[in-house]
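Step 1: inspect the first sequence and its tokens.
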Amino acid sequence: MAEKRTNGWGVAAVAAGAIGGGLALWSALAARSAERAVPPDGEFVEVEGARIHYVDLGSRRPDAPVLLMVHGLMGQLRNFTYALTDKLAADYRIVAIDRPGWGHSVVKGRRPNILEQGRIVVAVADRLGLKSPVLVGHSLGGAVVLAAALAAPGRFGGVALIAPLTQPVETAPPQFAGMVVPAGVREVLSWTLAVPSAMLTGPVVARAVFAPDPVPADFVTRGGGALSARPQSYRAGSFEVMNAKSEIAWMAAHYGELSLPAGILFGREDAVLDPEMHGRATAATIPGCRLELVDGGHMLPVTHADVVAAFVRGVAMRAG
């Protein structure tokens, strides 16, 4: 009887290994397919801690003001090039980046937290020779550009925050609840269940993130959405969800030290982040920050590009 039980456990272990290996292979193939569907659009710059993928678009006038754009959780630079950059390209030089570990950017060594990503943004601006760029951050990218502004006072011309994460939250937005897993577990899930789950639930989650605005039919490719369904994207997202609270709490205590033109744009119907907490409360603590509320949801750079472009122009004009 004991021998039969031992054999049973052995068969179960082999079966589990086979299933796990099959899921890992499937996840790897899905990631390659996503990367073929959304290949790199620009160039790469090497900075300490990361190899950053970026596009450099728009005006080439020597005196053209510069915008440096940073995307949010589960995003990449096509979140901006989908519709927003075309609205600004005639008058601005625009550099949009994939954050470290996202899109086609690669982390070198330990994964950087939000504060460290802010320093990487500073390093990218320095390496590319961007003169007093206005930082444009969407969602969690808003936290990253605020970290950059705090890390390098006087380096940037202004900050334009679009539906930004600015205050510590106790629980992750429900759209990202599946990423609330500790280190160790996230690595296993990233190669087994995360990608199949993302493929199955992706349309539902996207509708919840975009709500009440519709999800564009071509967002998976033109908007870069396909790259979110990869093992590395799940790991990066889980890491950021699990570590953001303490970092943003520190930042929020220092917003009063910022001394540059700043603005916050929020959709009144944002289903991901609370406009009152992350918009009105934060605007009250950043000197001179202006809050603008508009009709719309969380993905304003995609769904309301004209409104976002006007908002960015307003901040850039104040930056001079």
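Step 2: inspect the second sequence and its tokens, then contrast the two.
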Amino acid sequence: MNILVIGGTRFLGRAIVDAALAAGHEVTLFNRGQSNPDLYSGQVDLLIGDRDGGLEVLNGRSFDAVIDTCGYVPRLVRDSATVLADAVKQYVFISSISVYPFEAMREPGLAEDTAVGTMEDETVEEVTGETYGPLKALCEQAAEAAMPGRVLNVRAGLIVGPHDQSDRFTYWPHRVAQGDEVLVPDSPDYLTQFIDVRDLALWILHMVAQQKTGNYNVTGQAGTITLGDVLETCKDVSGSDATFTWVDEPFLTEHAVSAWMDLPLWVGSELPGFNLVNCDKAFADGLVVRPLAETIRDTLTWQATRPANHEWRAGISREREAELLQKWHNR
């Protein structure tokens, strides 16, 4: 296949390009040339341009499919899809389960027929915690309007694995590998949900090959992996001597420890459906996930290549953890 990737040099885009090249596909990247510009030197056709007013470099070209990994503003997605409407067979838009409103995530089993969130002023283009989801939903609609019946919307959740700069999963393998007493939230039975970036990339390419369209939740297995599973597997893979101290939500709330960012994978009790999204449709259409141990091992291997002074974007410091553990034991 001849595939155009918008973006393509960071995390999911990188995994898609790696998988496509490994499978022998022809890949063209369209991006601004700012992130990892030399990553695929000599391996792909690179088109430098800005999707905001700089799409002319795409003129006169044709592809089997375009995979848009970095669309956040409906106007820009509409422009891209309009320019490519006669040049590609399929538009793959990397969306998010955040298209669903928070209220919908209070119940488990959220499926693709759930109504998406809306925003009062659809001209707003600033991406914030409040607008991110509705803007993604509008991006889906913009692509569909430009290429009706030819759009695949990939509603991903937490994507994990090598090259994830968010640290929203990497924190746990790294922290457990350090050993000693580890502060962890809720209980070992707390259910979590995520997908390895490489599994997501392979599934996307499979869907492109099948020219599948429509909306798909693709955020891993629901109701099968607990936080206890993650931590014990991290311990097994790293061979550490870590012990786990499970701290309840009232204590964490009292001490201003935030869900999701301070203690990744945990979202607290307000959104019990967040980690129980229904992905049956994706699994029925070929989604395969690798063993948890493999994801953890490869994440640790990649983490070891980062600078020692890497500034963590999620998780708590060892000093803050020790302080909280002391307060927990002295309560």
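Step 3: confirm your contrast with the notes below.
The longest strand covers residues 88-96. The chain has two domains: 2-156, 171-192+224-270+291-330.
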